[in-house]
Design goal:
alpha+beta, Pnp Oxidase, Chain A, 6 helices, 9 strands
Length: 202
């Protein structure tokens, strides 16, 4: 792809349209998990933490992932709903940074996604007290086997604390690799009249 074509992508007025095109290219070029993104959260006292999660839905309303609300990230989201995402597509030499607030998806949406997961993944969600101390791996595996027996005759019920969150963005930044570290950055910010974009020094 020629540099002028990449610039054209970023000069669109709609950051979600830019993201959709970049994400489609990443799905074609990344060897694994093009939907992997770093999620940064913080405590009520602004102590940060970051981990990789998987994007499971996106559009003008935001970017959706699922997790155990009792986990460390879940507790931090409850205490401080401001967060940031980072996509790094190494095969394309591109990054996307997203900042905004998190809101919980409704039960119907969480149920629908949970039902779409493999049965083993559903059972794992039931068995895991995510982020809690674990004395031995065999304890976790025993809990998994117990969940298998409990739901042997029917569908696995979504635990009420296993849910989804949507990051509603107020800023989206696109980063393009350039030779000699003369990179290109375009930042979109949402104001009262909609999205505006600005180029930034690399």
């Amino acid at each position: 792809m020629q540099p002028t074509e990449q610039i054209e992508l970023v000069h669109d007025g709609d950051p979600f349209a830019v993201f959709e095109r970049w994400f489609a290219e990443a799905r074609d070029s990344e060897p694994n998990d093009a939907n992997a993104m770093a999620l940064a959260t913080a405590t009520a006292h602004a102590a940060p933490s970051v981990r990789m999660v998987l994007l499971k839905g996106h559009g003008p309303d935001g970017f959706v992932f699922y997790t155990n609300a009792h986990s460390r990230k879940g507790r931090e989201i409850a205490a401080n709903p401001k967060a940031a995402l980072l996509f790094h597509w190494k095969s394309l030499r591109r990054q996307v940074r997203i900042e905004g607030r998190l809101e919980q998806v409704d039960d119907a949406m969480a149920d629908a996604y949970f039902a779409s997961r493999t049965r083993d993944s559903q059972l794992g969600a039931v068995a895991s007290d995510q982020s809690a101390p674990l004395d031995a791996r065999r304890t976790f595996l025993a809990r998994y086997e117990e969940a298998e027996k409990r739901f042997a005759d029917g569908a696995v019920t979504r635990p009420p604390h296993w849910t989804g969150f949507r990051l509603v963005p107020h800023a989206i930044e696109f980063w393009l690799d350039r030779p000699h570290r003369l990179h290109e950055r375009h930042r979109f910010e949402k104001g009262e009249s909609g999205w505006t974009s600005t180029m930034l020094y690399p």
